[in-house]
């Protein structure tokens, strides 16, 4: 078989979740083609980086057009459809990022196949495990349809080892996608804007340490306690749905079933009761610390280390006593 | 202008689910069922658009066994004008749902289709995108704000994405899927529950709509996730720092 990986890139490099998608593709025992799209020099930079990023990648396909400058689902799904028509792939994989979630089911509909989203384990080339009911059950599903089998993978379940890029690995060929038959009516949807992200903090999805706060922080001002502690540890900031709904922090910091899924080495939960929707987003963290004034809070059932106490006393003490990040 | 809203009957969000011993699924017998919370948000948004005078009719659609009619009645009690039930008693995967929905769109000719971004049972997050793909309509998924411009026949959608909020503008007709922060759904009042009993619900089967339910997916098994081993309750911040440093080695 041959697998097509849809890769996202930014600033001339492949994004971390897409590296996880490549890693997932390597377990399918097939040759891998990578599809990159966009326009300008950063696209070609990313393509050349991608061509030597993994020995299993045999080909990098580049779709260079203003139509792909922004991550709109309409032209992107058409592109996946077009590239599949000439490539005849057995599998098409993307990360389960907001981009992958938006584009891949639409592409699957155009190809008249059922996609399998948010895969956490690949058992064999047709059998996959995905969480259901907010991770309270795991479903093993077999794909019995025709090619391609379309997957999105949960990147935290396919962690890419650090320094895995082997500079000596052979370079894959880079070729341009023929867009002469591409006829997407781009006026149907228009990209207006995107809020800019805080670049100083590590990305929540890939951070080694995540410091999270819940409604018990009471207001946005108090939430700075969480932000300062994260800064000291070099970690990312997370929040519960309740904290986001109450306006303490922006929506992109939400960890949970419908927010971000994280699996850092250390997850510290302050004033978080542990609703199943939140646990769904962080239960795969290596070490979980919970600080809560309610000794019966369900968060303590998943925590490796629990501390029953007032977070307004505990956080300042931690801030003072924890070592500065290395 | 007409709005079609999809509503799904799922295990209530507050129920702690149990996996069946034979691993064929989760226990749903004698378990409280409700409208999927994201679908409530979708319906609420449609109702608000109608109440602001921008739409004339809201039609709620549910697919599955007979009990889906209860979910439709809830939707009618919230304020939907009428319901459509597509009866099917076996597993329905998003591709089939999208194919059925496409037929309903051809019959009803709505300007807007609104769905929840995902159902809290299978957590698929696929159906809205697939309907949009099949119809070749633009899509605004994971919406946290929807502004309709009837004159220009466009809808502007704020979308919750990984690194913040993205805004797109879509020509009508379009598909929107709703995220949590779009609105706060209303409760059905008793008078409206009474009124809902006389609102019409049309019944179809997939055959009536000429949709063949072909399945390219097979559930092999459903299992419990691995349990985390029990942790310890510590007595002080000093002890916590010591554990993180010397036992867990994470700082």
Automatic annotation (TrEMBL), chain B:
<keyword id="KW-0813">Transport</keyword>
<dbReference type="InterPro" id="IPR014730">
    <property type="entry name" value="ETF_a/b_N"/>
</dbReference>
<comment type="subunit">
    <text>Heterodimer of an alpha and a beta subunit.</text>
</comment>
<dbReference type="InterPro" id="IPR000049">
    <property type="entry name" value="ET-Flavoprotein_bsu_CS"/>
</dbReference>
<comment type="function">
    <text>The electron transfer flavoprotein serves as a specific electron acceptor for several dehydrogenases, including five acyl-CoA dehydrogenases, glutaryl-CoA and sarcosine dehydrogenase. It transfers the electrons to the main mitochondrial respiratory chain via ETF-ubiquinone oxidoreductase (ETF dehydrogenase).</text>
</comment>
<dbReference type="InterPro" id="IPR014729">
    <property type="entry name" value="Rossmann-like_a/b/a_fold"/>
</dbReference>
<keyword id="KW-0496">Mitochondrion</keyword>
<feature type="domain" description="Electron transfer flavoprotein alpha/beta-subunit N-terminal">
    <location>
        <begin position="23"/>
        <end position="213"/>
    </location>
</feature>
<dbReference type="Pfam" id="PF01012">
    <property type="entry name" value="ETF"/>
</dbReference>
<dbReference type="GO" id="GO:0005759">
    <property type="term" value="C:mitochondrial matrix"/>
</dbReference>
<dbReference type="GO" id="GO:0009063">
    <property type="term" value="P:amino acid catabolic process"/>
</dbReference>
<dbReference type="GO" id="GO:0033539">
    <property type="term" value="P:fatty acid beta-oxidation using acyl-CoA dehydrogenase"/>
</dbReference>
<comment type="similarity">
    <text>Belongs to the ETF beta-subunit/FixA family.</text>
</comment>
<keyword id="KW-0249">Electron transport</keyword>
<dbReference type="InterPro" id="IPR033948">
    <property type="entry name" value="ETF_beta_N"/>
</dbReference>
<dbReference type="GO" id="GO:0009055">
    <property type="term" value="F:electron transfer activity"/>
</dbReference>
<dbReference type="InterPro" id="IPR012255">
    <property type="entry name" value="ETF_b"/>
</dbReference>
<protein>
    <recommendedName>
        <fullName>Electron transfer flavoprotein subunit beta</fullName>
    </recommendedName>
</protein>
